Amino acid sequence: MALLIRSVARSSCLLKQTSMLVPRRSTMATTAYEEMRNFWARNRKLNRPLSPFLTVYKPHLAMMTSLTHRVTGVAMQVAITGASITLLCLPGDFRQNLEYVRQLSLGPAIIKAFKYVLAFPVVYHFLNGIRHMAWDAGYGFSLKTLYKSGYFVMALTAVVTTYFVFGIKANAL
Amino acid sequence: MTFTAYHYQLDQNMATVMLLRACSRGPKSLLLQVQPLAKNANLEVISKQFTATPALATIEYFRARRGPFTPEEKRGKGHMMMASTHWKVERIVAIAMTGIMPACLFVQGSTMDHLLSTFVYLHGFWGIDGVLKDYLVKFVPWISKVWYVLAIVGFAGLVNFNYNDVGITKAIQMLWSL
């Protein structure tokens, strides 16, 4: 009797295992798209609020350098395109227009500040871009290196930008 | 407990939770009124579960569609190359720029003008394109086309500046001499 029960139990167990081995295509999502669709459908049904937004995070170095990289990049491209279209529309050539600016006789402080505004995004994006390319190549991901390179880029940006503003005296052509 | 009764209680619990959340969110929740889905709503068709008050219909219009996106929608149509190839081209341009930009400090002239403007502009064009795709295309699908038009006009302006004016490297030099 005990043997009979055991054999039945065994066989049913075996039956279960075989049923697990049978692919259950019909009930499961077959493609990644269907799985995603089920995911979204379930989440809509659950009626969840929006997941934590940017404001809940305490800013840290990696986040701020990345954000600055993007913001400077967008600002520069918008400025380049805007300046290009403006120059296309302005009457007179660049030399004349620059002469108008010169005749405004702005103070040296304003000009220096203006140069800082121009040079900072270029220098920062250039240096941090090298950092980004190192990441693309697979280097510099450890947290220690990340922070070191971040501070290095910030310091170097300050030095190089200051050099560009005060060190370079271009001749008027 | 029957199936329906269980669901009814679940709905009641959810309503309580939502009410508490609305209270904790403050006056903002008065503007965005949450309406739970109808029982027989087809979830595949409905992609927006919030219905705004009439005053906020504009915001409702610009709400992002939050998936699911079919592989075709994600991939898009009519691309020249695979995304990975494009990524590599972008890196090559970026690496070239690390040489071109310092070189412009020392060498100015027509060749440098065209090199600098082409590489910088291409890099920036892809950059803005990526940023738009990240943040805005899901709200305003036509924004990329606006950018393409502006970018083409901008690049035409740069080329014109390099050919018919002082050129970009000389222009920067002149600007720096102020």
Automatic annotation (TrEMBL), chain A:
One of its GO terms (biological process) is mitochondrial electron transport, succinate to ubiquinone. Keywords: Heme, Iron, Membrane, Metal-binding, Transmembrane, Transmembrane helix. It is found in: Membrane. GO terms for cellular component: membrane; mitochondrion. It comes from the Eukaryota. GO terms for molecular function: electron transfer activity; metal ion binding. Coiled coil: none annotated. It is a multi-pass membrane protein. InterPro entries: SQR/QFR_C/D, Succ_DH_cyt_bsu_CS, Succ_DH_cytb556, SuccDH_FuR_B_TM-su. This is Succinate dehydrogenase cytochrome b560 subunit, mitochondrial. It comes from Elysia marginata. The lineage of its organism: Eukaryota, Metazoa, Spiralia, Lophotrochozoa, Mollusca.
UniProtKB/TrEMBL annotation, chain B:
It comes from Elysia marginata. GO terms for molecular function: heme binding; metal ion binding; ubiquinone binding. One of its GO terms (cellular component) is mitochondrial inner membrane. This is Succinate dehydrogenase [ubiquinone] cytochrome b small subunit. Pfam families: CybS. It is a multi-pass membrane protein. A ubiquinone binds at residue 135. Its main location: mitochondrion.
